[in-house]
Amino acid sequence: MKDIKIESTLTIYEDYNELPKNVALLMDQAIEIRLKAYAPYSKFLVGAAILLDNGEVITGNNQENASYPSGLCAERTAIYYAGANYPEAKIVMMALTAGSQKQPTTSPIPPCGACRQSISEYEVKQDLPIEIYFMGVSGKVVKSNSLANLLPLGFDRSFL
Ligand code: THU
User: Fold this and answer.
1) CB 123, CB 129: distance < 8 Å
2) Helix/strand/coil percent split, the chain, to 5
3) What's the predicted TM-score (pTM) here?
4) pLDDT per residue as tens digits for the range 72-121
5) The architecture CATH gives domain 11-52+73-150
6) Is 74 in the pocket of ligand 1 (CB under 6 A)?
């Protein structure tokens, strides 16, 4: 028997203004689409912007439903559109922002477990790490160099 230690390294930016220009531009698109989220039930708006290696930017936001589980997170709305329309393109970077309409959201909001699993599928498929930046509405921004950092012991195609 032995213990193993799993470590992830994340980069923390003090705020949006500290982001490299290209990342800030992608985050701008995530912010823009967050404001168009359809979230009448949770009042929690999420925006995702995805940069592809062909230069295209895909955006998505959360789409809720009166039948709650039928709704979909912003990350998956965006990434499935990217996968459907640009099946050959690789995902370079994702910018995520989330905010409640009920209270200020000043801490970085990470993607949920289901979204991590979905993003992981594309990272494995393209065999290239996806950089992920996530923030609230204001405050610190977290950068992960790859999805794998956010999902240790991930389940992937190699097990099938
Ligand atoms: N949500 C996302 O869009 N992405 C996440 O990673 C976490 C949660 C949405 C789903 C739901 O519409 C609302 O946020 C509250 O959970």
Assistant:
1) yes
2) 35, 25, 40
3) 0.98
4) 999 999 999 999 999 999 999 999 999 999 999 999 999 999 999 999 99
5) 3-Layer(aba) Sandwich (3.40)
6) yes
